[in-house]
Amino acid sequence: MGERILMKGAEACAEGAIRAGCRFFFGYPITPQNEVAGYMSRRLPEVGGVYLQGESEVASINMVLGAAATGVRAMTSSSSPGISLMQEGISYIVGCQLPCVIVNFMRGGPGLGGIGPAQSDYFQATKGGGHGDYNLVVLAPSTIQELVDLMKEAFEIAERYRNPVMVLADGIIAQMMEAVEFKYQVDPESLPPKSWAVGGARGRPKNIIKSLDLVPENLEKYNWMLQDKFQQAREREVRYEEYEMEDAEIVLVSFGTVARVAKKSIEEARKRGIKAGLIRPITLWPFPEEPFSRAIPHSKKFLVLEMNAGQMIEDVRLQVCGARPVQFKGKPGGTVFNPSEILELIISLEEKA
Amino acid sequence: MPKKVVINEDLCKSCELCVSVCPVHVLQISQRLNAAGYHPAELVNEEKCTSCAACARICPDAAIEVYRLVKAGQH
Amino acid sequence: MNEMVWKPVYLRPKSLARVNTHYCPGCGHGIVHRLLAEVIDELGILEKTVIMAPVGCSVLLYNYFEVDAVECAHGRAPAVATGIKRARPESVVITYQGDGDLAAIGTAEIVHAATRGERITTIFINNANFGMTGGQMAPTTLIGQKTETTPYGRSAERNGYPIRVSEMLATLNGPAYIARVAVNSVSNVIKARNSIKKAIQVQLEGKGFGFVEVLSPCPTNWGLKPVEALKWLEENMIPYYPLGEFVGGGA
């Protein structure tokens, strides 16, 4: 701790998980995040953990379900098409009330798409993805340091609510290198045992991990109980960043790596006297509300920037609720923003004001 | 109540598999009805029964327990 | 001393829950559940056992055994079992799956658990149809057999040939025990029990993957009475699916 190491995002994610007490990784190779598996396959045996390459993403998410059912910290990582394959498993993990962490390093889609970075799984992550009524807490890091910091929180949130947590990053974060510091070290043996877990020698009544209930009235009750958990998460887990927002008239809204580029453009805009600012959601679910209600009085326009064809903008519009115009610029398919094009957008919005 | 073959009538589903495998044909389906609406099987000739437990081993509902009368101390 | 006492010859296994099952009269699941419970009792592994429930008629099997259980998505039981066994190697992990679960949607999962030599045990119930959903064609349905989705009888030209799962898995190096048994007669039931015990023992001894395919009657979807169903099994299934130990046989 205190030491800064230059690491690739995918590897830092893996190291962060291990330091957060995760000893079980099940995954399948997919670009642009193969380094996670490679790193895990080297490091986990060093700490007495298990790395297993599943035969597919479908198998991998079900291995995570199995390990999580025994009460251990388990995770998987993949990229967009693989995350699609995992949706059934995610729904089952929610229904079984098991904690786990799933990392999506998004890439261009739909279909096989491309290997460039994207943010086009926002809907999939925040509006379901799998079947049934449920939500996942979705964490969107913007830097590798933030990714590392959020890995520990992800496991804690997962166990707090007995629900999967998704960390939504992109191919840029996976592949770039930055200096990171690991500020934590969790010993999995120090974690409290789970009374609901299966496996091992017992001395207690049997535990059944399941999501089936064939009596509709019972399943309805179960659903409302799950919804209570999600409501608690809405009240307690919101995370966001406000950048230059005190008097912002042009409010940019972006998440992940796009926000980093946006900050650069805002710096430049401010130098030219334009009052630009940024709201950066860190939890995409639950989506932040307060920074929007604070921003509306002094703002003139909102500009949503995403590496997709328009997904988070719907949640922004819900928060702004017609009070101000909301513009959009998107980059689906693997292309990226650069600071000068965002600056031009800000300038043109300012001129039309 | 028979002692060699003890049938839990509430578990029996009247599938007749025990009747069909009994080598000495001492089981049959009774006229009684259990709570589920099935006619349970019953042992009709305890003397002929050899306690071979074929019935217990084929029963899908583990409804049958079998005992053998032996001399005390005998294996 | 000429005193006579009653000695138990067969008692209901303790690891079988004392409840009525939802299975049809004469269903093979009932027999195999009983055999598995007998083996769990005999090996004294009740406290350590975790069983995976599949999707199929036996979806509710966690109500019938006094052991920990995890419900799995259709076909995924071997993957879930892998996660459990890797996290808690001291557990005895058993998957129990039917034709759809194992031979249709779950073919990747069973092949890879087997080839990894995963220290788990799989009991595969082969009754030549998809029972729970009303008797549709399964990968194990025989040529000529009529089902809900092969009303004219399965034809090789339209629907391909049935899969012999035991022989297929026996080509892999990971399995330590593979056997095909049947529950159509008392002597076969006893052999089935012995195979189930061996398949669990290879797990206890850490030798590799254990697998037992059980040819099992489905009177309801075959449209036969239970006693007739046993005969149909013997005359039609055993010739195509030969009984025997394919891996790890002998001793």
Q: Could you provide a short overview of the structure?
A:
The complex is a heterotrimer of chains A (353), B (75) and C (251). Chain A has 353 residues and is of the alpha/beta class.
Classification by helices and strands of chain A:
alpha/beta
Strand content of chain A: 15-25%
Kindly state the percentage of residues in helix of chain B: 10-25%
Helix content of chain A: 40-55%
CATH architecture heading of chain B: 2-Layer Sandwich
Rg of chain A, Å, rounded: 21 Å
Assess the beta-strand content of chain B as a share of residues.
Answer: 15-25%
Choose one word for the global shape of chain A. globular
Question: Unreliable segments of chain B (pLDDT under 50, ≥5 consecutive)?
Answer: none
The overall strand count of chain B is: 4
Look at the structure and give the CATH class of chain B.
Answer: Alpha Beta
Count every helix of chain A, treating DSSP H or I runs of 4 or more residues as helices. Answer: 13
Describe the protein in words:
The complex is a heterotrimer of chains A (353), B (75) and C (251). Helix content of chain A is 41%, strand content 20%. Chain A is α/β, with parallel strands linked by helices. Chain A has a 7-stranded mixed sheet, with helices on both faces. In chain A, strands 10-12-11-14-15 form a 5-stranded mixed sheet, with helices on both faces. In chain A, helix 1 packs parallel to helix 7 (144-161). The model of chain A has no long low-confidence stretch (mean pLDDT 96). Chain B is an alpha+beta fold and 75 residues long. Chain B has one domain (5-66): Alpha-Beta Plaits, CATH 3.30.70. Chain B is built from 2 helices and 4 strands, in the order E-H-E-E-H-E. Chain B has helices at 17-21, 54-58, and strands spanning 5-7, 27-29, 41-43, 64-71. In chain B, the strands form 2 sheets. Chain B has a two-stranded antiparallel ribbon with strand order 1-4. In chain B, strands 2-3 form a two-stranded antiparallel ribbon. Chain B starts with a strand and ends with a strand. The model of chain B has no long low-confidence stretch (mean pLDDT 95). Chain C is built from 9 helices and 8 strands. Chain C has a 7-stranded mixed sheet, with helices on both faces. In chain C, helix 7 (186-204) links the parallel strand 6 (175-182) and strand 7 (209-215). The longest helix of chain C is centred in the C-terminal third of the chain and has 19 residues, at 186-204.
